[in-house]
Design brief:
15% strand; eight-stranded mixed sheet; four-stranded mixed sheet; alpha/beta; 12 strands
Length: 304
């Protein structure tokens, strides 16, 4: 299996580039194709100053509660494809600009107009998008400040880490709609919380709050919501800032070692770890880390 650090180029070539051309705005946000009503559905924001290297994916399909419609998905696919090959991105943070919601899942109004074949193809495109997110080489964090159900929770599950407000509501509710999770949820939820609990949640379509989600391992951290409505985002940003100073190549390869190692037996996993470790040894960052330790100073990693 090729390295995630090298796989980005092939993902870029294979990804469905359906969205329109991205434009860099003066405020540092990379803007994507507009929906038919002229409103943006996805934006990209690079944080400045000491936060340089943290990039935010801003979901802003306000009228449809960030529902996973054609325009939203095509824009997100293009954005994720671009991030896969951007070595300047050290942490990618997914958040919503729509109050009270992370992502409300499928756009049922669009889905109602699809025939069986169109519906199957669209769900396949959703599954592919979540796989793209899961295969991103840098750490990814989902900040869940509101509702994340169905495909919205599947999007969060595709991220490496998740923070949630205690008031947030999460669930794979597809069984209540005569469906099953089709964008990776039936596979990623058991890996996150264990098979028995995942079965219970999927069979019942139950929603859980942020505190319960943290207790079962569905999210990494749960925090009380505040007057801004962005407590989970603040927690996610704090987590990103903890990751930011670390050696980016080492972090990316550690992610690869864990993801690939979890899918094989322990002996094969040890071989994967050795291959990833071997790629760190010749880096300038590894030498910088050793020098900083000897000189009793903070390291200055450059990603080389």
């Amino acid at each position: 299996m090729p390295s995630l650090l090298l796989r980005g180029l092939s993902w870029s070539a294979l990804a469905c580039r359906v969205g329109a051309r991205a434009l860099m705005a003066g405020d540092g946000k990379r803007r994507y194709s507009k929906a038919r009503d002229g409103e943006l559905e996805v934006e990209l924001k690079r944080l400045p100053g000491e936060d340089e290297g943290i990039v935010e994916v801003l979901m802003c399909r306000d009228k449809a509660r960030n529902a996973l419609g054609h325009v939203f998905v095509s824009q997100m696919r293009e954005l994720v494809s671009m991030m896969a090959t951007d070595s300047t991105v050290r942490v990618l943070l997914f958040r919503s600009l729509v109050p009270g919601v992370f992502c409300a899942g499928a756009d049922l109004k669009e889905r109602a107009l699809m025939n069986n074949q169109e519906s199957d193809l669209f769900v396949h495109s959703l599954r592919s998008l979540m796989t793209q997110i899961a295969l991103l080489p840098m750490p990814t964090i989902a900040a869940i400040d509101g509702v994340a159900v169905g495909g919205g929770l599947e999007l969060a599950l595709a991220c490496d880490l998740r923070t949630a407000a205690c008031s947030a509501q999460m669930g794979l509710i597809e069984a209540t709609r005569g469906l099953l999770p089709g964008a990776g949820g039936s596979q990623r939820l058991p890996r996150a919380v264990g098979l028995a609990l995942a079965k219970e949640l999927i069979f019942t379509g139950r929603r859980v709050g942020g505190k319960a989600a943290a207790e079962m391992g569905l999210v990494n951290r749960a925090v009380q919501q505040d007057e801004t409505g962005e407590a989970a985002y603040a927690e996610a940003l704090g987590l990103a800032r903890e990751i930011l100073p670390q050696a980016p190549i080492a972090v990316r390869l550690a992610k690869e070692a864990m993801i690939r190692g979890m899918e094989v037996d322990i002996t094969s996993a040890m071989a994967i770890e050795r291959m990833c470790y071997a790629q760190v040894i010749p880096t300038r960052d590894r030498r910088e880390g050793m020098a900083a330790f000897m000189e009793k100073r903070p390291p200055r990693y450059i990603g080389e």
